[in-house]
């Protein structure tokens, strides 16, 4: 099988997200930023971690985006997401945890609210600084095939070592979708990797292993099991690139991305409280 055929075999559907400009409020609409639509008993999530001034305290998470699942359904050709309700994403954008430490748990949250008619716009927490209250931005969606970066491809085909042939085949597919090179925000599909494959990383850190400089401390059999099976159990839920609109800019690290991962089992059961977030940048 040629590299082109292998790459095609691994193709997955993704929902590409494109920033369109300023948005006006509509209950339950897909959008970036603004005030999230939530139920009456919603408690705004906070992350208790060390701040830049070395103080451990609760900090409200930033509301990033919400997606109307009924609107997503036409683009979700593999039927992985709920077909109703509202999916909402939060992240602590001040210190921007990287996700290689089990202590980062809680720096990101995902909620699925089934009944949109029971929701209303939430007030921002009184202690949330203006810098973390983002403007409301319109999101345009479409469905596109996505293909793995070299790091994930080489894990799926460990005997394949011809990076140049892979790069040529991958670039050929990207040339068919030039808009996909401009902004890499998406739901589902393959992540665009900046550093390393993240499936085993999600698997190990959620088992409690610190990965900052601790890979060598992980028992060999546990690491091998994760590296051999995690890519079959975890998938990308949401990848967010830099967001720019007017004078507003949200960047992760140095031109990086954040990636929300979830196991296939948890996604099928709508257990969005069990996601894991990783940040990568250049």
From TrEMBL:
Signal peptide: none
Any matching Pfam family: DUF1963
Protein's recorded name: DUF1963 domain-containing protein
